[in-house]
Write a structure and sequence with these properties.
about 30% helix; three-stranded antiparallel beta sheet; about 220 residues; about 30% strand; alpha+beta
Length: about 220
């Protein structure tokens, strides 16, 4: 049985997450737990990730919300170029000469408003190729010691959603949903957050972060 995140102080949990992210990551084996079934067919058609794929970055921005460790997700508007109306992590394309960390921080502030203080970068997760938009997405994990005040950009963000680590770790929030994609019906793994559905690349990134958090909490249980 996994220990609850609340059994560790937030400071200790952040320290252990930083240490775990510095070691080899779970990688695709964890990401594939939430991968749409048609993803293998798409990658097989491409043979490999195309050299012209653009770099992008997203941010898992952790912060305390009461006794919980929380992070924001965004419901994208219908005005954005990619993944309209979907739930995503804040982020976007890297500009020329920009690192994934720089892009993740810049895009997060463009979408959610100034964060008010410097984000402590804990590490990164495994880059993920997204065939529909032809991006290589670099997930960055950061921490703020206080919950920021969000001022979402109205053209990009329809709603800011707050998830928690305990929500992510709870298997009751993982489900499947039938969707029509590429002219066929598929059973797709999803996370459910209130009335919203999280799937695709965002779900795959969160699946790897979940695996990292599980390892941290399992090591806590072994030490107890």
């Amino acid at each position: 049985m996994e220990p609850e995140p609340a059994q560790l102080s937030l400071q200790e949990l952040i320290r252990r997450l930083r240490e775990r992210l510095a070691r080899p990551l779970p990688g695709p084996s964890a990401q594939w737990e939430m991968a749409p079934p048609y993803r293998r067919a798409l990658l097989a058609q491409l043979n490999e990730e195309p050299a012209q794929a653009r770099a992008a970055a997203v941010l898992i921005l952790l912060y305390p919300n009461g006794s919980e460790l929380a992070f924001p997700l965004t419901l994208r508007t219908l005005y954005v170029a990619y993944h309209k109306g979907q739930v995503s992590l804040p982020g976007g394309a890297c500009e020329p000469g920009e690192s994934p960390v720089e892009a993740a921080l810049r895009e997060t502030e463009e979408e959610l408003g100034p964060l008010g203080e410097a984000v402590e970068i804990l590490g990164s997760l495994t880059p993920l190729f997204v065939p529909p938009s032809s991006f290589i997405v670099h997930p960055v994990v950061g921490y703020l010691p206080r919950r920021p005040t969000f001022r979402p950009a109205p053209m990009e963000v329809a709603e800011v959603l707050e998830a928690t680590l305990s929500w992510l770790l709870d298997p009751l929030h993982q489900d499947e949903e039938e969707r029509e994609v590429y002219g066929a019906r598929w059973r797709i793994p999803v996370f459910r957050l209130e009335n919203h559905v999280i799937w695709g690349a965002t779900a795959m990134i969160l699946a790897e972060f979940r695996a990292v958090a599980r390892e941290v909490l399992a090591s806590t249980e072994r030490r107890a």
